[in-house]
Amino acid sequence: MKTSISFLKSKCDFEKTIDLITSSKADYIHVDVMDGLFVNNKTIFDKKKLEILKNSKKPKDVHLMTLHLKSYIDVFAYLKPEYITFAFEASANPDDIIEYIKSKDIKVGIAINPFTEINEIKPFLDKIDLVLIISVIPGYGGQEFILNSKERIRELYKIKQKNSHKFKISIDGGITDKVLRKTDKDKLDIIVAGSYVCEQADYDEQICKLK
Description:
Blueprint: E1 2-6, H1 14-22, E2 28-34, H2 47-55, E3 60-65, H3 69-76, E4 83-87, H4 94-103, E5 107-112, E6 130-134, H5 149-163, E7 168-172, H6 177-181, E8 190-193, H7 195-198, H8 203-210
Parallel strand pairs: 1-2, 1-8, 2-3, 3-4, 4-5, 5-6, 6-7, 7-8
């Protein structure tokens, strides 16, 4: 199981936080992108922040919580991330967005919000590389884990096994070591954690607790 660390809520400033994640045992930097339209919150990325992210040697995992997806894909493809994951509910034509991300030579993820049925993404599961189960109300860090997310992991895993799909299963929102102890960790490939890691002094200690 790999870890992807979000910098949304941190004790340190942006540059220091990215430096700490980069030097940690994390597998990815999780880049949350919010537009204030699809979700209430908004993240601001200026040229300096993009350069700091691009220069980090840690692989990047971009999560778009936005409308106007192609415009954001164009911007964040600059980071050369391993994954760009888009919100399923933000697209009227997921096939078009999947192909657009693939055209950038980047792996494709679909994020699914807590109140969207897993069955709705079944037509796309053989075309993508990752499914991100959102286990909080999207848009804010530091929320409590939504309990029925455990059943959603199991449901998605059963679909994956039955159809021999290759996508990774990831989860994002309210992740702590206590939450994971009550979850089917063996069915998860990547976990996203934010404040649990970045609001503590020792990132590696927190990451080791999660693993």
